[in-house]
Write a structure and sequence with these properties.
Number of helices: 1
Number of strands: 2
Structural class: little secondary structure
Strand order of the largest sheet: 1-2
Radius of gyration: 19 Å
Distance between the termini: 64 Å
Order of helices and strands: EEH
Helix content: under 10%
Amino acid sequence: MARHRKPTEQTPAAGLPRGSGRGPKPVKTCMACGRPFEWRRKWARCWEAVKYCSDRCRARGTPLPGSGREA
């Protein structure tokens, strides 16, 4: 039977949410809806080319009235 260590106060990750030690993720604003969205791992290779927060916004492509992204 394998024994698992319990986190102690000396452990740096004790009591912190998972993945919290990596720092802030880059944020962009969606060209279609104007909402902010964070970096995702699947966009790691093409982050500079990402313009839309979702497939729905990418399919729409044009700014919504009142989104703050009017042409």
